[in-house]
Amino acid sequence: MKDLHVKFLALALLLFAFSLMFYKANTLGLPLFPSEEVEVWSVEARVAFQPKEGPVKIRFALPNQPEGFVIADENYVSGKYGLAFETADDNKIAEWAVRRASGEQVLYYQLHLARDDNQISSLKPNITSQHGQDVYFPDVPGYSEATATIVEALLSEVRQKSADIKTFTRELLLRFNADEPDENVQVLLSNIKTDKARVDMLRAVLAGARIPSRIAHVLLLRDGLRHGKLEPWLQVHDGEQWLSFDPGNGISKLPENALIWKVGEQPLLEMRGGKQAELDFSISRHTQEPIYLAEQRARKLDSHAMEFSLYSLPIETQNVYRILLMVPLGAFLIVLLRNIIGIKSFGTFMPILIALAFRETELIWGIVLFSLIVALGLAIRFYLEYLQLLLVPRLAAVLIIVIILMTMMTIFSHKLGFSHGLSIALFPMVILAMTIERMSLIWEEKGPSEAITQGVGSLFVAAIGFLVMSNDLLNHMIFVFPELLLVILALTLLLGRYTGYRLTELWRFRETLR
Amino acid sequence: MTTNKQDIGSILQKQKAKWLKIAMGFDAKLPWRRLEKLGILGMNKRNGDFIAKYNSRSKYPLVDDKVQTKRLAEQAGLAVPKLYGIVKIEKDIPPLVKQLEDYGDFVIKPAHGSGGEGILVITGTSQHGFRKSSGQILSQDGLVHHISNILSGMYSLGGLPDVALVEQRVRFDPVFADISYQGVPDIRTIVLKGVPVMSMLRLPTHESDGKANLHQGAIGVGIDLKTGKTLGGVMHEQFITQHPDTGFSITDVQIPNWDLILDLTAQCYDLVGLGYIGVDIILDQHHGPLMLEMNARPGLSIQIANQCGLLTRLNQIEAMTELPKDVAQRIALAKTLQGETSNSLNG
Asked: How far is B147 from chain A (nearest CA, A)?
């Protein structure tokens, strides 16, 4: 009856913990493993200009939820300028304004982007499909008579060699980019100087076939790039989505590192009350813990799961909880070692406290220093026994001696140049004093072998506890998914009803098996 | 075709049976399966299925505090060693020590001691002080220090301040003279709901310093519940048939007053109302069986001493819907309990 109760409780805890964990890992994209660092691109747009007399107003088109990326953070460095936003077409527009300005003015916009392979964008209001409804089929433009014939000839040629809008566009681009373009194309390109004009011409030709198209300004992300410029790309709509084409070679796939900064005719930078505007981009790449990106995602999804995240705490508090959250794991380990294996140790959770101290001293040094202090303390404790002191004064004396020993060891190791000796101060000295007391009692009453067995057992448990509690993967999992504590609780409850043999009992009762 | 199919079917079935048999044989050879078959009670099962189930927390002090146990037993008229005095504060120690010199022999123990720790047996006095059961002389200061240690909680669970008891030293029955070394042998019996389940005789050795505790090196000797005769012994979880210090055989010794011992043991259940206890009885030369103490968490080594698992016997009692109220009937029931011994399994 109680067994069943415990099993149901454990099952409920496990279900809850794992479903929360699944949600956090799957929907919010929280990383399961610590090594997964995410590549983050930092783009800085710099706008410099000379103000004229009177008020200045600058409208700058910015990316708005760009395809394939998630915006982790944005900053506007604009000093005394007032800042307002509006959304136009597929872009966000930042509007800086100031009543009076003198000298060269510089405004910065910083954007931190991470590649979004989880396709979270499908959950966000999707721009492409929203605006897909607005796609209209352009009227055939009024070409001049000569141009009209050329375009018609070109279009019919291309139409013959293509099956759909995608291949149609590619065929057209092939002709435009051929090493020796045919006469028709040569005529069309005769007055074209800039890349943008080239895209405009392409659009005009495509309009002849009533294919919807638009211009897209793309920034190619390269680490360490300074004075980067936007490149005009051609986008055509195939009835379902916008396809991007490099007007220079006809390749229809956007490279991994291409960020679509702006689409449409909307000017990139509009300025009133200023002159000699300069705009350039600098780009750098670095890696970041994905947890921060997940927080961004959670914010975008309006999820409350991250509001209760440990990452919302101040760093100092976070570090405390990084250690604290590992203690349940240590306690669970003690349950395993005591009730399933049957290892004897001093006190129930004393080895866990020792293991926590090992975090600072490192394992080997921790064991050496611990053994040294306990051995010395034990020797002195035997001498105190001879003095026949009362219990509490004796315990206090042992505690004082432990602290004297620790101080001396620290000073000695400092003089000898061992930095490890310094961390000894982190040992829980009251625990050490109690260990010495317990050990000396067991030494006298049950003999040295039992005392040493339990001492070694304690050190063994502490060492395993240290290895488990300092494991990076477990540390990361527990901190990112604190609901795993419920899993540990459930397993502990289940083990609480374990009535089978302990491993050491197989040895203890060996005589009955003969 | 059909016959062929049937042949294959039967061959497959035979194969399956064969493999199943091998698997079962392998399974049965696993140490924990064999322990299970012997009905050996493990620590986890004892704690979870017996102590937690039958022993209510509120009654623990009745057995953990030897003062309370003694008072209860005296009120109920059970035979116990006579209480000489109780020391509660340091100030009471010196007058008591003076008084103790007159008694000559006595035992000092902590009221909340566990596992026989802190028990001091004094067999006589001399001009240098008190003679311990080991023959060593303990000075007056040594005795005062020992009592002071008891009061400060050195031997009590959790180090809580404690009380010291001084009581009559038992002069054990000469029947055990050949097979015990210093100290006092006692008889530990596990009692489930008032029915004695398993007994063992605990013999002190040189190694155990006169104490009757198995983990300190005393010998545990299994006892046949029906007859009260000793079976084989175990020391440090190893079989023995002779006492290592005296060399006398420890098997087939008839324990005198066996029925009286069982009677006293069974009555202890009614005294404290704990369902799963270990009762320690000593045989005094003049006073017969005396109840020394009870334990709400009795150890498991008794199974090794008896070469028999407790669980089989405990289950027999648990299976009964109603147990007799009468002590004599409970003892009669105890004598009918069957246990799997490793001899009956392996032999």
From this structure: 10
- Nearest residue in A to B159, CA atom: A391
- Tell me, yes or no, if A510 comes closer than 8 A to chain B by beta carbon: yes
pTM: 0.67
Sequential DSSP letters for A295-357: HHHHHHTT-SGGGG-GGGS-HHHHHHHHHHTTHHHHHHHHHIIIIII----SSSSHHHHHHHH
CATH 2.60.40.2250 for the A38-136+213-288 domain, yes or no: yes
Q: Choose from A138-152, A448-462, B23-37, B73-87 the range with maximum mean pLDDT.
A: B73-87
- Report d(CA A91, CA A399) in Å as an integer: 70
* Beta-sheet pairing, B129-132 with B137-138: antiparallel
Asked whether residue B232 falls in the same domain as residue B309, the answer is: yes
Cβ–Cβ contact A387 with B under 8 A: no
Q: What is the ipTM of this complex?
A: 0.76
Give the Cα separation of B223 and B261 in Å (integer): 12
Domain hosting B200: range is 42-80+171-338
Same-domain pairing of B134 and B186 = no
As a whole number, mean pLDDT of residues A258-278 equals 82
Residue A85 has pLDDT above 80, yes or no: yes
Please report residues of B whose CB lies closer than 8 A to that of A445: 117, 216
One domain, residues B145 and B272: no
> Using CB atoms, which residue from B32, B49, B304 is nearest to A499?
B49
| Chain Cα centroid distance, residue B81 | 18
In a mutagenesis test of the B interface, which of A3, A509, A510, A513 is the best target, namely the one with the most B β-carbons within 10 Å? A509
In the predicted model, is pLDDT for residue B134 greater than 80? no
Q: Is B262 in the same domain as B150?
A: no
Give residues with Cβ within 8 angstroms of A396, minimum separation 6. none
A505·B42 Cβ contact <8 A: yes
Q: What is the CATH number of the domain that holds B233?
A: 3.30.470.20
Residue B281, pLDDT score: 93
Task: Give per-residue pLDDT as tens, A470-503.
Answer: 888 888 888 888 899 999 999 999 998 888 899 9
pLDDT band at residue A195 using 50, 70 and 90 as cut-offs = confident
| Chain centre distance of CA A306 | 13
Looking at the structure, tell me whether residues B131 and B203 fall in a common domain.
no
Both B180 and B158 in one domain: the answer is no
